[in-house]
Amino acid sequence: MSDGQDTQRLAIQFQAIAKHFGVARALDDVSFAVRAGTVHGLVGQNGAGKSTLIKILAGLHRPDSGSIVLDGVETTALSPHQVEKLGIHFIHQDRLLVPSFTVGEALFLGHEPRIAGTPFLNRRAMKRQAEAILQTYFGLHLPTSTLVADLTTAQKQIVQITRALLAQPKVLVFDEPTAALVRREADILFALIRRLRSEGVTIVYISHYLGEIEALCDDITVLRNGQVVVSRPLEGLTAKEIATLMVERDIADMFPKAVVPRGECLLDIRHLSLAGHYQDVSLRLHRGEVLGITGLLGSGAKSFVQTLFGLQTPTAGTVETPDGPVNFTSPKQAVGRKLALVPEDRRVDGVALDLSVAENITLASLEQFSRAGFLAHQLEKTAVERLIAQLQIKTAGPDAPVRTLSGGNQQKVAIAKWLSRHSEIYLLDEPTVGVDIGAKVEIYQVIANLVARGAGVIILSSDLPELVGIADRVLVFFRGRITAELPSHALTADAIFAATTGSAERQQHVG
Predict the structure, then answer these.
(1) What CA–CA distance (Å, rounded) separates 207 from 186?
(2) How far, CA to CA in Å, does 87 sit from each of 33, 36, 70, 464?
(3) Domain span(s) for CATH 3.40.50.300 in the chain
(4) How far is the CA of 101 from the CAs of 107, 132, 138, 148, 445, in angstroms?
(5) DSSP label at 172?
(6) pLDDT one-digit tens code per residue, 452-470
(7) pTM (predicted TM-score)
(8) Radius of gyration (Cα) for the chain, nearest Å?
(9) 145 backbone dihedrals φ, ψ, rounded to 5°
């Protein structure tokens, strides 16, 4: 830490923090400081120790050794109640809100204002305070009588942040806050964080998106294998250099790409339309090809991918596979023609969190492991072990609940489910959202292996460097139509971005 930092008040100091779970070392001699009134980025691969460290700060774990200094006061153990009294609040990735509560009830849970001298809630005061915060920081009106279950993902996050702001926090910890947000919603969040910093609130910002770290943070700490690799001002450090520190290797080979001859046509789509979403979409997908698709929210790209898997029914157009024309009205029909969908929200739609790794992998192909109506356990075990090894899924074993796996390994389980069924056409919807750099590279290698064995892959992604790195060509959706096709030799992030925003000269070439 520089002399300039030493002269500034420190909000948090971690001092030689160590934590083990059995024989596994989660944290080892972790020491760094967070300056008051700054945005401090905390990064590292899944398993680097970020979550354990934050749980210690939240009072959910007790360190084996070491201490934390909060605003000048040293402690070796915290409770959640102490942490809240000290003004430290957490904005969690999983939006920990009760679905059946109203917005007002969720905002004031545990701190409900009451009418003086009575046990009754002062709902008028709750409404007034909530509306003031929502208007001041977000410029919006969100009725306090609305149920949490009826809110969008972004609105749930706003409720969670507003709940913290009502307590006048000194420190806010954001854990992967943009994982489920679209670009416009993320920009609103970034503006809020900058405003809070200007008002003296200290921010700890945890994210796998290194572009966000680069744009938002004043300082950064990189964890690797439970240890601090570097803790320093961010100035002069690029996203690429941060990634290299995280994975301990040069990331020039981040996008492994198989050179595969283009084979037969697996999907021939002609003039497909879905009223109100997209129209007149034509394209072909071939064996050995990674076809990238992108577009802004509402461009029609996501609805198009959902249509291909039978989740929505087109209003016009044709789809043909090598076995002939199809008209999917359900996912079951799509699966029958060897299509597979890895959805964006893997935890809700991609895997069954409480089932084991083995149960998830064979979930879509149980008939292959059944004999006379009974499950052939040895046959299933052999297939599962082969796929775990093939995809390098890091798990305690085939019987481990998928919930215990990192995000990247959960995603690999979601892909293994379709490999088990011998699918040939893979629809990947934001396949690396919310996973770290190392896990991304492993998923890209899985994609390269898929096309090398003759599959065709359609990847819908808003990560432009990702599309440049792995796609053979990219189709851009703009206001319901494919308005540009960019071949591999013309793929740049700038070119894709220009096409998605409509600022490029647009032309349609679909091969």
Answers:
(1) 12
(2) 17, 13, 10, 38
(3) 3-253, 259-338+424-511
(4) 9, 20, 21, 6, 43
(5) E
(6) 999 999 999 988 888 988 9
(7) 0.62
(8) 25
(9) -90, -5
